[in-house]
Write a structure and sequence with these properties.
There is one protein chain. The chain is mainly alpha-helical and about 170 residues long. The chain has two helices and no strands. It has helices at about 10-140, 145-169. The protein is rod-shaped.
Length: about 170
Amino acid sequence: MSLFTPDAGLLFWMVIIFGLLFFILAKWGFPLITSMVDKRSAAIDKSLKDAKEVEERLGKMTAEHERMLAEARKEQSVMLKEASDTRKAIIEEARTEARAEADKIISEARVRIEAEKESALRDIRREVALLSVGVAEKILRQDLSDPEKGEDYLAALVDEAAREQKTLN
């Protein structure tokens, strides 16, 4: 008995067993395999559909994200411009206040300088008057009959007045 040349009886039983096995598989095996393949195919289709929906949502979310970024950038530029304008206004206001304060200080200084100048002039006039009175008093006490003696006396008085002036300063 060779497998390459089987007997008619062996061939008969092989066909019967094959038919029986095919019938059993066709009755219970193939439907089970087919249903499992169909379920798997449905699961794959559902996954593909879900993936497309997720991709669409992701695209919408990306577009929304881009729109929000554009709005944020626009708001940022508006805020930066407002901050810049506010900064410029504050700087200008500070400059104006500084100029006003400087003008006030300068005018007050001028008034003080003028007052001190007037005070100094009064003091000088008073000193000159006192010196003049002192010189006149000394001249009147001295006998000025001799012109040469009078000139020497006047020169000495001028020198004395100059020394007194230096000691006062």
